[in-house]
């Protein structure tokens, strides 16, 4: 009798474990992607977004790039809510020289020039604010792409926000 009861308990426990094995995290499927704080689109089909990546951190994502050799990005941020930005170059551009400037309050600049054109989608860089409050993130000012034929594509984001 005890053996039968033990076998039933083990069978129930094993069945429960098996049922839960492929259940996932209980989130009901894929979680929604974070809403960008700003996005820009270019006439050549490329686009860029500032994607929240944790409190005060934003990824600069590029997509639809085709033979891009260089990029110039101006990012605006409200000094009342954000300060002390630091820019890190991502891994999308390889064999490239980059320059960043965060010396003017409210404006961060990043320029990248590569020796090999890039195509596709990737992380151009990230910007991190040491001091951050509120919910509104940084925005794009002017953004310019240059392709392998030295054609330039420029656009503007939302610009400075209160």
Gist of the model:
It comes from Geomonas limicola. The chain is mainly β and 162 residues long.
In the CATH hierarchy, the third-tier topology is known as Immunoglobulin-like
**CA-to-CA gap between the ends?**
75 Å
The average pLDDT score comes to 83
Q: How would you sum up the global shape?
A: globular
Task: Determine the fraction of residues in helical runs and give it as a percent range.
Answer: 10-25%
Count of the separate structural domains:
1
Helix/strand order: HEEEEEEEE
Number of strands: 8
CATH class identity:
Mainly Beta
- Largest sheet properties: 8 strands, antiparallel
Nearest-angstrom radius of gyration? Answer: 23 Å
Name given to the CATH architecture = Sandwich
The total of helices stands at 1
- The residue ranges in which pLDDT falls below 50 over 5 or more consecutive positions are 1-28
Based on secondary structure, the structural category is: mainly beta
Q: Roughly what fraction of the amino acids lie in strands?
A: over 45%
Describe the structure.
This protein starts with a helix and ends in a 6-residue tail after the last strand. Strands 1, 2, 3, 4, 5, 6, 7 and 8 form an 8-stranded antiparallel beta sheet that branches. The protein has 1 helix and 8 strands; from the N terminus they run H-E-E-E-E-E-E-E-E. It has one helix spanning 2-21; strands at residues 38-41, 47-52, 57-76, 82-89, 96-101, 107-132, 139-147, 152-156. It has 162 residues and is mainly beta. The longest helix is centred in the first third of the chain and has 20 residues, at 2-21. It has one domain (38-156): Immunoglobulin-like (Sandwich), CATH 2.60.40.
């Amino acid at each position: 009798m005890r053996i039968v009861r033990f076998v039933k308990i083990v069978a129930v426990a094993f069945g429960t474990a098996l049922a839960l094995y492929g259940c996932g995290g209980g989130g009901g499927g894929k979680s929604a992607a974070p809403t960008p704080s700003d996005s820009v689109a270019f006439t050549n089909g490329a686009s860029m977004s500032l994607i929240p990546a944790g409190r005060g951190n934003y990824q600069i994502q590029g997509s639809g790039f085709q033979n891009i050799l260089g990029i110039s990005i101006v990012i605006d941020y409200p000094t009342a809510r954000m300060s002390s930005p630091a820019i890190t170059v991502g891994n999308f551009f390889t064999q490239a020289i980059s320059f960043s400037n965060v010396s003017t309050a409210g404006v961060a600049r990043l320029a990248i020039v590569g020796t090999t054109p890039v195509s596709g989608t990737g992380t151009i860089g990230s910007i991190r604010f040491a001091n951050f409050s509120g919910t509104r993130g940084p925005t794009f000012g002017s953004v310019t792409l240059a392709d392998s034929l030295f054609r330039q594509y420029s656009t503007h984001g939302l610009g400075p926000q209160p």
